[in-house]
Amino acid sequence: MISNQNLRIHQISGLAPGPRLIVTGAVHGNETAGTKGIRRVLAQIDSSDIEIVRGSVTFVPVCNPLAYNHMRRMGDRNLNRRLQPTATPQDFEDRIANVLCPLLAQHEVLLDLHSFRSPGQPFVMRGPADNRGLLEPFAHEAAEARLAAHVGPSRIVEGWMSSYADGLARRKARGLTAGGVHEDPSYGVGTTEYMRSQGAYGITLECGQHDDPAGEDVATHAIHQTLALLGLADLPLAPPQKPFECLNLAEVIDRHAEGDRFVKTWTSFDPLAEGELIAVRADGSEVRAPQAGYIVFPDVSAQPGHEWFYLAQASTRAL
């Protein structure tokens, strides 16, 4: 076990100027591929197999030690929702956020390492196109796309904040959010969204299924590639894994009741035909695909009122 009373942070600074990178793992405590990859790279730095010669890199192998020690997704709540500093912390994740958010804000680039429950191939989540809107204004689309292209996977997913905001509107319409934190659009803000709100950029790399031993290799390769791409270390930069499959999260579907159930065991990015039956509600109503696309993040353990699965379609944004 590691201490729940502190956040372990490793920072290495080169002697020449360069970008400030932060690499995070175990934002969700049962997602340990990133933690293992970070620790492997730290050992390579300690043995001088890798030398940080420009800029700086900060590693946080375990962002949520309470959840990590219990090998579960959350401590008191989901750290990757409503990630923001607060003067009145109410739970463990609030206290972590009061340390993690200022740390993120000190950096220019984030590589956030995660994994997922169901079987599937690694993929990258990126942010929006450059925009001056109110939801997620952004000005680093090209740099973020370049990072997404080089970390390894060829599947790139976008649309998190917009799909989450639409889901929030539907929750309000159903009267499910009165008095709850889910009413606040910032509930959809996690590590990468917080970075973008601070004028920086970052990507989430989903390294594969939680227990896939290859996840550590995926995370390690991504860290190496990021260090090389940003010029922090003199490492070889592998070319992107073309062709890319770019998808947009078009809609989030919530679980309404304990009796809501999937009609089969779904895996992220299983294809859906238009009208295909996905799930049946406790009241017997059917949930069908409104158009051809894919199912993403199906969660059989989702609590009522929370995200159950996402629907995705091909993106019109090239990488």
Protein traits:
eleven-stranded mixed sheet; 25% helix; three-stranded antiparallel sheet; 2 domains; alpha/beta; 319 residues; globular; Aminopeptidase; OB fold (Dihydrolipoamide Acetyltransferase, E2P)
Q: What does this entry show, briefly?
A:
It contains 7 helices and 14 strands. With 319 residues, the protein is an alpha/beta fold. An 11-stranded mixed β-sheet has the order 1-3-2-4-7-5-6-8-14-13-10, sandwiched between helices.
CATH architectural label of the largest domain:
3-Layer(aba) Sandwich
Low-pLDDT runs of 5+ residues are none
Number of domains: 2
Main sheet summary: 11 strands, mixed
Give the mean pLDDT: 93
CATH topology of the largest domain: Aminopeptidase
Q: Based on Cα principal axes, name the global outline.
A: globular
Binned strand content:
15-25%
Explain how this protein is built.
- By secondary structure, the chain is α/β, with parallel strands linked by helices.
- It folds into two domains: 10-243, Zn peptidases (Aminopeptidase); 247-313, OB fold (Dihydrolipoamide Acetyltransferase, E2P).
- Helices cover 25% and strands 24% of the residues.
- It contains seven helices and 14 strands.
- It has helices spanning 33-46, 65-69, 92-105, 141-150, 160-173, 191-197, 215-229; strands spanning 10-13, 16-24, 54-60, 109-116, 123-125, 155-158, 201-209, 245-254, 261-262, 270-272, 277-280, 286-288, 293-296, 307-314.
- The strands form two sheets. Strands 1-3-2-4-7-5-6-8-14-13-10 form an eleven-stranded mixed beta sheet, with helices on both faces.
- α1 packs across α7 (215-229).
- The longest helix is centred in the last third of the chain and has 15 residues, at 215-229.
- It is globular and about 65 Å long.
- The mean pLDDT is 93.
